[in-house]
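Record format v2
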Amino acid sequence: MTLGRISLVVCIVLLALAPLTLSPFRLGLLAKYVCFAIVAVGIALAWGQGGMLTLGQGVFFGLGGYAMAMYLKLKEAGSAGLPDFMVWSGVEELPALWKPFGNPVFALAAVVLLPGLVAFLLGLLVFRQRVRGAYFAILSQALAAAFVILLVGQQGLTGGTNGMTNFSQFFGLDLTDPNGQRAVYAIAAVVLGVTFLVAKLLVRSRFGRLLVAVRDGEDRVRFLGYDPAVVKTITFTISAVMAGLAGALFVPIVGIISPALLGIVPSLELLVGVAVGGRFVLAGAIAGAIAVNYAKTLFSEDFAEGWLYLQGGLFVLVLVFAPKGLAGIVESVRYRLSSRKRAPSTPVEVAA
Amino acid sequence: MGALANQLPIGLSIAAVLLLIALGLTFTFGQMGVINMAHGEFIMAGAYTAYLLQGFTSQSFLIALPVAFVVAGLMGLLLEWSLIRRFYGRPLDTLLLTWGVSLVLQQLARDIFGAPNVQVTAPGWLVGGVDVLGVRLPYNRMFIVVLAVLCVVGVWVYLTRLPAGRRMRAVVQNRELAGYSGIATGRVDRFTFLLGSGLAGVAGVALTLVGPVGPSLGTFYIVDAFLVVVAGGLGQLRGAVLAALALGFLNGYLEFWTDASLAKVLVFVVIIAFLQVRPQGMFVLKGRTLV
Amino acid sequence: MRPGTLSPRTLKRGLIALLLPALLATACVDEPGAGAGASGDDIKVGILHSLSGTMAISEVTVRDAELLAIEEINAKGGVLGKKLVPVTEDGASDWPTFAEKAQKLISQDKVATVFGGWTSASRKAMLPVFERNKALLWYPVQYEGLESSPYIFYTGATTNQQIVPALDYLAAQGKKKMFLVGSDYVFPRTANKIIKAYAAAKGIEVLGEEYTPLGHTEYSTLVNKIADAKPDAVFNTLNGDSNVAFFKQLRGSGITPQTTPVVSVSVAEEEVKGIGPENVAGHLVAWNYYQTTTTPANDAFVKAFKAKYGADKVTSDPMEAGYNAVYLWAAAVAKAGTVEVEAVKKAAGGISIEAPEGTTTIDGENQHVAKTARIGLVQADGQIKEVWSSPGPIKPDPYLKSYDWASGLS
């Protein structure tokens, strides 16, 4: 018990100390990993707890990111100006779709509501028809593909393949200045903490137990009088909102949002960290997301061609030997240690 | 008008490509519930087989078809035997597992054959086309249509007329009962995977006629292939055929009236809408073991 | 209780305790900056191309050419008496990664300059990084123009050195009806905007304008639309793998280079190899350099490249532009007497070298280079034969200010 408390404190202290010890470049990278960790919490909720393998999380990440980017672009362009990419895309007047995003309150609301709404509608349509398992996975993947094509095709509205770049301001913070970057990092770290707490409360609540029940026996839950479609839709929506928040934070941290971040492959990559860390444990998913993205940076700096081997191999190894990820390994070690003291209860195998 | 009529054979040929790439999946995904994301890389293996064989004899392209079947089939067999058989009953995990495998295979192809596309020369008799009643029929497209028909007939004969196919269907419908009846279910699984992957190899050879041959070849086709299987219904040969035809013509005409980007998005919308009406695809298999 | 679903709190925290500190500790150990760009006897230069992902096909060849130039310069004694040391990073065909790696090269490795990028998207992603850090980027690929960053040097063609000459050539050949085909991204859309403005001014009819998603491989419908429209020529701005599918499917359709030539601006020697020369032979391409270009510098370049990387390798326009970029930068540094960015920028205007494509000169005003435009005919052996070239190097004009018909574009 005390060990856990101490390690949590250590983590918070380390995350808090990072701005002081890291160079602005490395801190920016850490902030990026934190964004992916926020997405990971949502995936762990939907996939680990709810059994919904979402291969289209990039879509929600993108919706949040684009909403934020639109606001920042408008802010930069001033009241009369057009965002830079519209100028070279031949757009002469600000499209109606863009106008409300000049308002910071609307933009912030859109960051949360837009991914939530899309996920809610899709979830309602799909889950009510009892589309599940592999079908849902493939549909969410096709959604990612279609979304990217749509974004790329509307160059005047979205910046096309280039996406949007060149942000220097974030709600009064100067993103070119190391202090501004530290502040953005701090915001991301706090959002991660809040996301984690929300997810944790959710998992512990009655709703969380219901969600696990839906995962393990949807029909039985239905016979008990609950509507699994509602439970799944709500969870899916929450996980989409988390991805949207991460996308919105990603924009000022990395300085770009583009379709390259949202397609099938990036959406799958978001899963790697969760699988490695352990999809059934929220903290495991966070640690996994940060570790895998850190490994990716390391590899691409020294051994670029090897990254695909490692990423692919990691996936295979984890799934074959440790389906519950690193968290599962830690758990079984602890289980063995503690079973010497207590009589073990029989563990039930999880059917995903 | 001429162009509109021209879209008919084009829709058919798009359908044939879709069917070729999805046919193997109706085996592995449909019959066994294994979502094989590495299916695209088996297609790639077939295409590279055609690349390696060319120049040996004048008919190397035709020879490549059976050879690619064996090469991709053996790769599938190896994958099933080494990894997938540990994963039955965990369809979502197989999806991620095979995606990992597909990444490794792509990078392997890049290291062996280099990142650039390689050149596969089409045999002379498949170059050009013929005009029939003002409708243009390219030979390479006609070849793909014929090949797709042959593959479907072959699969149909196998499933319905041969003992091995009957055993396979028995395992699909009730694995446990089939096992008790003396069918070696493990061996049937391996053989199913060999067939499904082998068909991907054949598709790969055919695709060299119309598309690029490079390490990312598989990624171009995999999503479309899955959509065909999802729309067609699990494990249904006729479902796959009908879905491929529907999506082929839909794609062809939607692109003709709008553009390529919009057509892809619209096709996705149509599939979502269709699944609202028929959540299990066109045909539902009354099996007991599949979720 | 199901393990893994609701496990003890301590467990989760123990896990964080295990992973995060180790992670942060490694992240905290920052490599010490290796000093300024020119320290001791070395000058570090960054090379930033995609070595993995879809763009690796093209970008690896440019990296090879740039490394060759660095090696040659070092063999001749380096720059300012110091050896050039390349620091290579992988952009991974992913635009945010380009921005991240550019930042790394500038702030961690402290390179004197960076050579890199291919797609417009990667350049747009890197641009703010270089402007913010006041560092230099040399971008070696033909692009859509309408840009002139004070911290980027553009050694590939801008629109008036590639697309406009190609249009002039087609017009001179009496082509009156054109069909535009492109991948769905910035370069084709901007190129087609220019083409339409040109066509409107010169009485050329544009029969159709079609875009396909990047990586698209199904072209039969598009080919049918072309066959139906019966244009005199097709202007092709498709990118990468799509070209292979397009040309293979075009060939079966009965459209021949004799009746309807396709002019491509993104198909070079390397791409011809992947498409299969028999599928594209007889069609036209527009560039500033071909492997067959006859200059003494090119003989040496092709020979050196094949000696270093293999006799089966081909050289292409972007490779040559990357090779030139290194030499142009080295010449500017030699003139400035320092690698300091502002001094190099100041010295660069008017710098001229005898490149494989002929004389190329940096325009101090917009930091592009003057280049000779060349129209080529693809041969059955995969090489490209020059059929027309501009009388001399064309002055770069990224905003097409000197063309009346383009007044509404920028």
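The radius of gyration of chain B is 19 Å.
Residues 71 and 148 of chain B are 19 Å apart (CA to CA).
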